[in-house]
Structure formats: structure tokens, C-alpha cells
Amino acid sequence: MAAAPAPELAPSVSLKGEVWRHLRRDRLAVAGLVVLALLFVTALLGKLLTEWVVVFDPTLVRLPEKLLPPLAGARAELLPEGQLPALGFYLLGTDDLGRDVFARMLQGSFVSLSIGFVAVSIELAIGLLLGGLAGFYGGRVDALIMRFTDVMLCFPTFFLILTVVALLPPSIWNIMIVIGATSWMGTCRFVRAELMALREQDFVRAARALGLSDARVIFRHMIPNAIAPVLVSATIAVASAILTESALSYLGFGVQPPNASWGNILSDGRTFLFDAPWLFAIPGGAILLVVLAFNLVGEGLRDALNPRLRRGR
Amino acid sequence: MAGFLVRAIAQRIGLLFVVSVIAFAVVHLAPGEPSQVDPMNPRMKPQDIARIRAAFHLDEPLYAQYAYWLRDLASGELRSFQTGEPVLERIWDRFQNSVPLFLVEIVVIWTFAFPVGIRAALARGSAYDRGSTFLAYVLISVPGYVVAYLAILWVVNTFQLPVIGMRTFGLESASELRQVMDRVWHLAIPALIAALGGIAVLSRYVRSQMLEVVAQDYVRTARAKGLPEDRVIYRHALRNALLPFVTLFGFLIPGLIGGSVIVEQLFAWPGLGRLGYDAILARDFPLILTINFFAAALTLAGTFLSDLLYAVVDPRIRLG
């Protein structure tokens, strides 16, 4: 069909195109997207350069070079052979053990980001599964799952996370799992409500009439129709998982050394607030920037998806 | 109505029981025990450990331990592993310290968040809206204790005010007024600093709620019949925008424990959050479990209250 659409009809636009059109006009959200893109590159580079090909060694202790400010040159005469930093100077200074803060931030970017993403993936997996089952089957399955959700909502979340993380042996995986396992309730309730509304729609009847398995109807046909707002809140959940890790670090239960996360660099740095303010400012600023970016993108998407809040019509 | 009350309360007691069983399972199934807190202490002999384990029923099956915990909690005989003091008494002491901090914080949050959010919504797109939105995002996105650290430095350097603990040590002989003011400052500053994040979150929520309501038909109708703008905003729009905040009340209460851990740690405030943190460090199972139980009970009481309030403020809802 080469004919142009009739002038009185709005051109048909896919949901994605529509959302993107609105998002592009939100300058803060676009800035957030740029920051996130940079962050992904940084995190991958961080993994590459600090673990696979060790160019920047985040664990190397250079005691004579401790607490140097950013951009301070390395003093080769004080360092043993082969310990000179790759750049010849310390881009972001050194900490109280003389470790290169730039190397630690690079390593931490991957660690912090993966905590956010894995925790949120776990949250989504539990929330979609339980919400999907409850919304699709209703009845006793629904009652049981919703009672369990109510139970989980009664726990003081941060206190529960703290308890579990403190009692279990320290490991990054435990932190991710605990954060994910204590934050799925909102997703579950939302998905359930959406699926209950979708259950009576024709396309669901058609899918069932075709004899598809329940799992296929739920996860291939119904959930894709309810997923957009869930993904928006997932964006914001990544941000809050990163913040939770930094709060745990403050209390001494975050990612344990020698692994670096932005949270524990910040938490270690607070002791040197007066002597070495960059140890506080750099990780603090990085967390602020990244969490802000996640929040702005998430809110931007939410506005773009919510037709009632759209402007300029 | 009576039927609703009975059912709501029975249901919540059931939930509380399940919560306590799960909490008990989590705490006891996780590796690590109170008897292992100090494994390097040369004075801890195997027979001491055995005695401790026996005294706290740690060798019995889990369901028996749970029954002991429940029995002791009900009779008020439950004692801390660490100090041997009655658990309920300690929690009650710390609770009394936490409540003023919490209340002042909540009052500050709600007093500031509403005007800020309403104004931002009404002047949508203005410099005020964009500025307050951005500031709110910054406050939401920064780890709470970073803001608190900077604020503490600023307050202490600029105003020479004391901020740590509940009172200044060694002021016992000072005049009555001086002591009261000292208490007030020690309370006000942590509450204000802790409220910053809450103001940011709540004002965003107020803003989006107001935006939704202002776009409704009944607001347009109110304007169309020529009511003054203030009356439209505060009588017609705001009152409807307020409805969801009633449910928020219920979810505020758990913050009394979960949200206060870091604030109380920062300001050395002897409240419930710190008690819980210390209990976790010491693997003081009875104390951890009871604080958790207490928090869950408060949450349930909160949601119960907000259900009732909802029925009071929203005539469309009938309890029954």
C-alpha cells in the first residue's frame, strides 16, 4: 500500500515509537540514558581491565603512596619494580592502603551494576511467576499466593535483609538474592491485577481455544501485554538495589573486601572525610549520578507510558 | 461492621503467626550461632558452650525452640541471650526513644512535602517545578548517609550545635530550661536530616497525585461554574488527591524499625533500630525475633488503621 494515510487520521504509531517520541522530549531522561550507556561501557571495561587483563589492579597495596589526591603522579623511586600504575599517575587518587581508587571504582562499577541487575532479575522472576499464577488461576491458588504476599509485606524489609545478610556467610550472591527475594511483592500484585483484567479478553480465549498450555498462555500471551509498567518499575528497582547495597556497606554487611563495590569504597572513605575528601566524593558522586540516571529514565518512561499525564495534545 | 472487625483481626493474627514462623526459620536455619560469636576467646571451653546451648534450648528440635520462644514471649519471661535482661523491657525502653524521633520526622516530612508537591503540580513545567523535581531526584538518588554526613558537618560547623546522642553529657547541673533545649536540639537535627529523603519521595507522590486529579472532569466542572481557584484546588482537587495517602499511613509504621537503623546508627540514638542492629551483630536470637515480631505487629496495626480510615474518608467504601 503506497497510498499516504488519510489526512484526518493520525498516523499509526507502535507503542514503542510512541513512547520513544515522548521520552525523547524529556531532556532529563535522555541525559539519564546517556549516563547509563556510559555506565555499561565502564562496567564492561572495568571487568575487562581489572580481572581478565589486569591493567589496573584494584587490590595492589602501595603503602608509600597512600592517600594521594586525584591526578597525583606516582613516585617511581618509592615503588618496587612493576608496581607503577598503568597511567603513571593516579587518576582518582589512592586510598588509605595506597590502592588505586580508579582501579577500585572500575571494578566496583561492574560489581554494583551486577548487584542491581541480578537482584532485580530475581525480583522480576518471583514477581512475574507468582503474580502470573495468581492472576491466571484465581481461586485458591490466588488466595494462597496473596496471603503469602501479605506475609512478606509485614516484614520490616531492611531489617530482614540486614538479618539474613549478617547471619549468612558474606558473599555478593547472598546480597543479590536477599534483596531480590524481599522486594517482589509490588510486581506480584501488579501483574496479578493486570492478568485478572486480561483473563476475559478475546485474545486470551483464542489462545486457550487453540489448546496452548497454561504456561504458554500466561507467559507468552498475557504477560507481554502487562510487562511495560513492570519494566519501568524495574528500572527504578535497580537504582534502589544499588542504594540498598551501599546502606548495607555502611553497616559493614555489604560487599566484602578485597572485592570493591561503590558502596564499600564510599563506606571506607567516610573515615577520611577530612584528610582525603575525594575518597568520599568520588564514590558518592558516582552512586548519585548512576542512581539518578536510573530514576530519571524510569520516571521518564513512566510518564511516556501514562497517557493521562501526557502533555501537548 | 462488627463482623468486619472480628474477621480483620483474626486474619491479622494468623498472618502474624506465619510471619513469626518464617522469621524463626530464617534466623535458626542460617549458619552461625550465638555460641560462635566469640570463637577465639580462650576462656570459652567446650563445656561452657554446651552449657550455653542447653540454657537457651539450642539443642532441641526447632519446633520445640519455637514453642519455647512463643511461651516465653507470652509470659514476658523471654530473656536476651547476650545480657539476660527481659527482652520486652529492653524493646519498650528503646521504643520510647524511637517514637519521638519518628514522630518529629513524620510531621516534618508531611508538613513540607505537601506544599512543595502541590505547588509543583499547579505550576507544572515552571522553574519551580523543574527545580524541585530535580532536587527531589538528587535526594532520592544519594545514599541517605552521605546527605546526613554533609548535613552534620554543616550544622556542627555553622551553628555549633550538638548532634550526637539524646543529650549532652555533663549538663545535669545546668538549669532546667537549658537541659530541655539541649534535648530539643538533639531531637530536632536528626529528625530534620532524616526527613530530607522522605520529603523528596512524598512530594513527588503528592505532585503526581495532584496532576492526576487536576485533570479530572469534576475539577473542570468546578472551574466552569466559576468557583474561585483556591476553592477549586483545596476543596475539590486536594481532598480527592488525599485519598491514597491514607493507605500510606499503614506503610509508614514499619519505617519506625527498618528505616531507623541507619539514622540511629549515625546519630548514636539509642532507639529500636540500633537495638536490632546490635542484636544481629551478637546473634541474639530472642531479641532479633521479638523485634521482628513487634515490627510485623505494628505493620499489621497500621494497615488495619488505614483500612478503617479509608472507610471513614471515602464514602464509597463500606466495610462489611
Fill in the keyword field for this structure.
heterodimer, A: 313 residues, mainly alpha, MetI-like fold, two-stranded antiparallel ribbon, 12 helices, elongated, B: 320 residues, 13 helices, 73% helix, globular
Q: How would you describe this structure to a colleague?
A:
The complex is a heterodimer of chains A (313) and B (320). In chain A, 65% of the residues lie in helices and 1% in strands. Chain A has 313 residues and is mostly helical. Chain A has one domain (33-61, 101-311): MetI-like fold (Orthogonal Bundle), CATH 1.10.3720. Chain A has a two-stranded antiparallel sheet. Chain A is elongated and about 80 Å long. Chain B is mainly α and 320 residues long. In chain B, α7 (176-214) packs across α9 (229-241) and α8 (217-224) runs antiparallel to α9 (229-241). Chain B is globular. Chain A binds chain B through residues 28, 147, 150-151, 153-160, 162-164, 166-169, 239, 243, 246-247, 250-251, 263, 266, 270, 273, 280, 284, 287-288, 291-292, 295-296, 299, 308-309, 311, and chain B through 15-16, 18-19, 22-23, 26-27, 30-32, 125, 134, 137-138, 140-146, 149, 153, 208, 211-212, 215, 254, 257-259, 261-262, 265, 273, 276-277, 280-281, 283, 288, 291-292, 295-296, 299-300.
